[in-house]
Design goal:
Layout (H helix, E strand, L loop, with lengths): L6 H20 L12 H12 L7 H14 L3 E5 L2 H12 L7 E4 L4 H10 L3 E4 L10 H9 L4 E5 L8 H5 L5 E4 L7 E2 L11 E3 L4 E3 L7 E2 L6 E5 L12 E5 L2 H12 L9 H12 L1 H18 L21 E4 L4 H10 L5 E2 L5 H4 L1 H4 L4 H9 E4 L7 H11 L4
Parallel strand pairs: 2-3, 2-4, 4-5, 5-10
Antiparallel strand pairs: 1-11, 6-9, 7-8, 10-11, 12-14, 13-14
Helix pairs in contact: 1-2, 2-9, 3-9, 4-5, 4-8, 10-15
């Protein structure tokens, strides 16, 4: 055990090194992704290290309790990867190997690889260009091809018209890794109109009415990924939760017999715990940047996604569907010191492009044309201004 008397010295040294690294990093090119790591996050992880509590333990339990509080789910388990979360969900469902599972072509590649590893057959669905999500019609076509279960991936923070999918009556596993802590109003037809920016003041006009039902509370199980580039990060891992008690019971039995090597360590859980606590603060900054960037592209040829539930969507980076070649735009941004990346570079269509390009035409197009621009709370005014300038002058 580390001597408590050295705590202040350790903390000060740790913070100084971290802050020097961040300052040095800020002088480089603006990176597409960047986790928001402040002193609270550092201290939570450092405390685990100093107390020598780095395996699964108290912080894992605190993270699960926090997820239950913010989502109102019945129960949850924190695991070492989203792939493990999917495996546990299918085990809890006792899903038959002969029943095909539908996935989006723009879902992360680990979904397809996990299904194949477990012996399941997958039906890969195309998406629509307006949102990058599967549509009701596309899922219905997937059902006609034999699809029995849908993994509904809510990518880029864009929320689907959820009730349309629920009304199909098929089992759904939600993946909210990029839309975590978004929410739907229970009655979608009477949902408030989307947030609109007051251009004169540059501020959001947001209805402060009570929030609705969280994303992730509509499926049988929900994968809340916490990888490095997810909206909430643990540095690696995922929380799998069950909205209802009927689904939590079998998952609870699996959780009680799970080996420690499957469970998220406390160091990771500590980071995710603080990230959730700081979500509202970070989301406010992300929303301000999103509106700033959205205004910058209004007169241009390139567009971002439509947001059906914009008033409750989580802001995940800044996806831009290009009306010109990605390479030209990337080169232009790079000259200005801004890194952009393909939004779906780690997707199923990227993994199996040759095989899927003819059947998933829109997804293949978005793979080639959707660019991700930096948008995260750690961006300062200076860097945000650089990005606005580039967005408003893209070729």
């Amino acid at each position: 055990m580390t001597d408590p008397s050295n705590w202040s010295q350790l903390t000060f040294a740790f913070y100084k090194k971290a802050e020097n690294y961040i300052k040095k990093d800020l002088k480089k090119m603006i990176q597409t992704y960047s986790p928001t790591i402040r002193r609270k996050e550092m201290e939570a992880v450092l405390t685990c290290m100093v107390d020598e509590k780095i395996g699964p333990g108290e912080m894992n339990l605190r993270l699960l309790q926090t997820v239950k509080e913010v989502t109102s789910c019945d129960g949850a388990i924190a695991l070492r990867s989203p792939a493990l979360a999917l495996e546990y969900a299918l085990k809890a469902l006792e899903w038959p190997k002969e029943n095909p599972i539908m996935v989006s072509a723009l879902a992360p590649a680990w979904q397809l690889l996990t299904l194949e590893k477990l012996g399941y057959s997958a039906i890969v669905l195309d998406v629509i260009e307006e949102s990058g999500l599967v549509s009701l019609k596309i899922v219905e076509e997937g059902i006609q091809k034999g699809g029995k279960l849908l993994i509904l991936t809510e990518s880029m923070g864009v929320l689907p018209k959820i009730n349309e999918f629920v009304n199909l009556g098929i089992p759904i596993i939600e993946d909210i890794s990029q839309s975590a802590l978004s929410y739907f109003q229970v009655d979608e037809e009477n949902a408030p109109s989307p947030k609109k920016a007051d251009e004169s003041a540059g501020q959001e006009q947001v209805d402060a009415s009570p929030k609705g039902k969280r994303a992730g509370m509509y499926g049988l199980y929900t994968i809340f990924g916490m990888e490095a580039n997810d909206i909430i990060t643990a540095g690696g891992g995922a929380v799998l939760f069950a909205p209802k008690r009927s689904e939590w019971s079998p998952l609870k039995r699996l959780a009680e017999s799970a080996p420690a090597t499957d469970i998220m360590p406390d160091m990771n859980a500590a980071l995710a715990f603080v990230e959730i606590k700081e979500f509202d603060r970070n989301e406010k900054t992300r929303l301000e940047l999103f509106n700033l960037f959205s205004r910058a592209i209004m007169s241009g040829r390139h567009k971002t996604y439509e947001r059906f539930n914009d008033w409750g969507s989580t802001i995940y980076s800044f996806p831009l569907v290009l009306n010109s070649g990605f390479k030209d735009v990337k080169a232009y941004a790079q000259k200005k010191g801004i890194e952009i990346r393909q939004a779906y570079e780690d997707s199923i269509i990227a993994l199996r492009q040759e095989e899927l390009s003819s059947s998933c035409i829109c997804a293949n197009s978005l793979l080639l044309r959707c660019a991700l621009f930096p948008l995260y709370p750690r961006l300062g005014q200076k860097d945000a201004a650089r990005i606005v300038k580039v967005l408003s002058s893209l070729p």
